[in-house]
Amino acid sequence: MPIAMRIAAPTTPDAAPAHDEAAIIRSILESYALEPLGYHGVLHWARVLENGLRVADVNGADREVVTLFALFHDARRLNESRDHGHGQRGGDFARTLRGSLVHLDDAQFTLFYEACRLHTDGHTDADPTLQACWDADRLDLGRVGITPAPHRLCTAAARSLLPWAHERAIMYHQPMEVLTRWGLGDLVNGRNDRERIDR
Ligand SMILES: [Fe+2]
Ligand SMILES: [Fe+2]
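A: This is the predicted complex of the input protein with fe (ii) ion.
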């Protein structure tokens, strides 16, 4: 049974972003417990965003939910390995920003929160927006030496993206357009891939 009901969300690809992503990033990093350029840090979040929006282009996922998932799902990690409950903590943190930096209606927030809370549980059967979020994260497993198994991805769209996304993951690709929009261009400029991988 699907984990959450399908929500018919506006998904116009060229719609202006509803969220101030740079302000959200600043809020997250003010109290982020780990190295921002670490394995679960901002470069991962940026690749997750680009992965997720590409899945959304195909499966109709809610782009604002996918965007906030990319920003928050690992935002409250306390370590870089097994960290039980970190997804829920990310969702809880986002809840404190509702009305200021987070602008989702209740149905969207429920989807977002469940996407964060359950993202490490291995589910594949869910609302398309949750599927896009989880696939976006799984497509980036190459950065920690894991090749995603196609049958563990939720969507055909993600399976099609796997070669492209996995190459970017293992190369620790910097999505500069996203990082610049987030105000993080200076954070990554001048660092080569090896320096980041060694962190
Ligand atoms: Fe995570
Ligand atoms: Fe992640």
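The pocket of fe (ii) ion (ligand 1) is lined by residues 73-74, 86-87, 119-120 (CB under 6 Å). The mean pLDDT is 90.
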